[in-house]
Amino acid sequence: MPHASIFLIGMMGAGKSTVGRLLAAGCGFDFIDCDRELEQRAGASIATMFELEGEVAFRQRESSLLDELTSRPRLVLATGGGVVLGEQNRQHLRSRGLVIYLQASADEIARRTRTDTTRPLLQVDDRPARIGQLLEERGPLYRQTAHLVFRSAAANPRRLVARLLAHPQVVEVIATGRHAG
Ligand code: S3P
User: Fold this and answer.
1) Does ligand 1 have an atom closer than 6 angstroms to the CB of 35?
2) Segment 52-99, tens digit of pLDDT
3) Which of 3, 13, 59, 180 is least enclosed by beta carbons within 10 angstroms?
4) What is the model's pTM?
């Protein structure tokens, strides 16, 4: 496969953006955060898109952007936590690059998103219960889409990125621009 990139998947609050930015710097790749790119293109926040258009329309925007961005070379892409819900998305990720699942426990995610006001799916009375439910639904999808799984939120991001950069499959993508799949 030509032009492999690195795709980070995982729940909200798992550290995809922080880790992705550092990883891209370490690889000499460009970094793109799908959510921020979607917001820039729409000229509206994710919360506003959810409110005005609903989740289904948001997922369509997200899928079409993912199709475009996963086709680009030498990129570290931080995806939105719900991207694995779409089968086509999972296929694009898995077949076009090296997919790394940043895994965090429900408790860690709850702690890291405690003060969040921007993620529509977390604006509920019982946030820990919602996180548990999302993780239960999505855990199997994250695992089946990923080539590599790394424990995330408990670790120091720089230390985690150093471990990622030392992994043979990451080294291969950086060196050859290819991923064997
Ligand atoms: C979502 C995660 C968010 C964002 C939207 C929906 C989800 O991205 O795409 O709020 O369904 O898990 P992050 O994982 O970057 O927070």
Assistant:
1) yes
2) 999 999 999 999 999 999 999 999 999 999 999 999 999 999 999 999
3) 180
4) 0.96
